[in-house]
Structures are given as structure tokens and as C-alpha cells.
Amino acid sequence: MTTVQQTFEQLVSLAIKREEEAHDFYMKASEDSELKASAKLLKDLAGQEVIHKKKLQEALKDGVCETFTCSSVAEVEKLDLDRYLVDIPLLPSSSPQDVLIVAIKREAAANSFYKALSELTGNSAHRSVFETLAKEEDTHKTRLQNMYDDIFQPDM
Questions:
Q1: Contacts of 144 (CB under 8 A, 6+ apart)
Q2: Where are the beta strands (DSSP E) in the chain?
């Protein structure tokens, strides 16, 4: 039988995997980018995803999964937290516009996931880690939205 702690460990492990995927996603997008400024931003975001992965790994080592306040696996499942960690696929034929839209959606979902985790932990140090991650993902989303507006809606 799965425990609450194991359920959260699975969620945090999935978040780590998504951070790795985000890194790879941004690196590939930066290589495909025709604009130097866009490529630089995407590489910067890729580097930040590596830092997020390390923060999550450290939180796991520090026992973060023991500090969540849910009392049962059913309670955790009812929160449906893994909906934030759904992989949004891209096709090889995806346009730069599609890439940015997917990136914005991924960052918004990561932000919501980390906000939810911050609200569920009873430990202030761990809550701070998740709040920081949520803010950083929101910053990523804003930067990507600005890039999108600059490239695809320059006259607005």
C-alpha cells in the first residue's frame, strides 16, 4: 500500500523529471532560434531549470515529503496535483510560435504545482523552497510572454 509520503515522493520525482525535460526543451529551442536575443533567453531559462532540479533533489534529501499535511493518499489524489505535471508534447514541425505557447503553458503549470505544494507543507523552510520555485516559474512565464509579444504581436 502506498503511503502519503510515497505519493508525495512520486510527485516531487515527477517534478524533477519535468525540470529535466524543461531544460532539454529550452536548449533545443535555443539552438533552433533564429534570433540571438531569444536564444540567449532560452539558454538562461534552461540553466534555471537545472537549479530548480537541484532544489527539488535537496528538498527530497531533506525529507520534504514527511512535512506535507495531507492525512491520506485519497486526500492527496483528490488534490489532483499531477495534472500540473502533464507533458505537453511538441511536434518536430512545431513553429516557433507553438514552442513559445507550449513553454508558457509549462511554466504556468509548474507555477501552480509549486504553489500547491507550498500550501501543503507544514515546514516553513520547505514552504519557502516551493514558494521560490513558484515565483521563478512565474517569472519564466512572464519573460516568455514578453518574448511572444515582441515577436508575434509587435504592433500591439
A1: 41, 45, 100, 103, 104, 107
A2: none
Closest listed residue to residue 136, CA positions, set 47, 24, 68, 33? 47
CATH superfamily label, 4-152 = Ferritin, core subunit, four-helix bundle (1.20.1260.10)
Beta bridge partners of 68: 121
Predicted TM-score (pTM) of this structure: 0.89
- 135 by DSSP, 3-state: which? helix
Domain extent listing, the chain: 4-152
- The dihedral formed by the CA atoms of 47, 50, 51 and 54, expressed in degrees to the nearest 10: -170
Q: What tens-digit pLDDT sequence spans the chain (156 residues)?
A: 788 899 999 999 999 999 999 999 899 888 888 778 788 888 999 999 999 999 999 999 999 988 888 888 999 989 999 888 877 777 777 788 888 898 999 999 999 999 999 999 989 999 999 999 999 999 999 999 999 999 888 776
